[in-house]
Amino acid sequence: MKSPLQRALSLVVTLGLMLGALLHPPPALSDGAAPATGLVPPLLEIHCIDVGQGEAVLLRTETAAILVDAGIDGTAAAYLNNRGVQRLDLAVATHAHADHIGGFPAILEQFQVDRIWYNGQTHTTRTFERFLEAVLESSAVYQEPLRGELIRFGELIITVLHPERSAADYSGHLHNKNIVLRADFGDFSILITGDAEIHAENRLLASGIPLAATVLQLGHHGSRTSSSRAFLKAVSPELVFYQAGRDNRYGHPHREVLLRVDRYLEAEIYGTNTGGTLVITSDGSSWKIATSLTAGETTPPLCIDINTATIEELSRLIHISDTRARQIMERRPFTSRQDLLDVPGIGPGRLREIEDQGLICPLPGTE
């Protein structure tokens, strides 16, 4: 059964599709045929576009171009124009927030888009209305994909991992039904998570779907609402990236998320807030990454070293007041986890909570 959004779109689009069928034949589901990109086949490029505090990811092979989210404005469209993209085989709007769909009107106006995926959940913002208007005015085939659906463009396979059920009548948080995609290219793979949070991650973990991938996009711009330890370990990527604006007001990426990545993964990590647009290239086996900016300052330590931290740094730890921070400093150095249990007021339960907070550097005897 079609969702209300699908029915509304169908009523407006059907006549236009019938009239334009002779001029615009429908695209094939498999083996996209976009204009040649200049890439040497077989090669996949993943452009993690710097759109500020938003997300836009372009996947490009010699014969296909796929855009997942479009940022908040026309930045993504300008980037595609500068790279010579003329057509998108597939555009995916993961959910209705402005920093993911705000740029789609420019995309749909400036490029031929064969197919657009959206989860079907309605929203009340003017940005969402403009997004729908742009979809209606385009010739793109509109679909609401569910878990297990896939589309193939030569060696590139795009599979939907989430949501498992339609979001058309869902009234919960927009992030819960956010579209999550897996892209496979030979032995190389990437999970594109959009703003999926721990709720969606838990659904994926419970599903039993294989999640291991070469590259992981950290959910929700690297927010603490996403990227649980269990999810990170299940994906076990070699490369992690996030998309966030420089000096953004949300504090993305959150420090504890970077710490979890550092502690539980052996992965390289990159962000658009420090590296600008990131371009990952793979031949289906190996991969490499290039950044458009060079960081002008050293990266601060990801974790709080109990043996060198200041009172201010120690006080960021749960259960650590200024008084307890001074007691810790008086008992340095700590050479084992057991040593911390000798600090007044820190018992096994509190120590576990301190470790679970994800800010303290590991000590001998910890995981």
From TrEMBL:
TM region positions: none
InterPro entries per record: ComA-like_MBL (IPR035681), Competence_DNA_uptake (IPR052159), Metallo-B-lactamas (IPR001279), RibonucZ/Hydroxyglut_hydro (IPR036866)
Domain Metallo-beta-lactamase span(s) in chain numbering: 53-246
Superkingdom in the source lineage: Bacteria
A Pfam match: HHH_3
Protein name: Competence protein ComEC
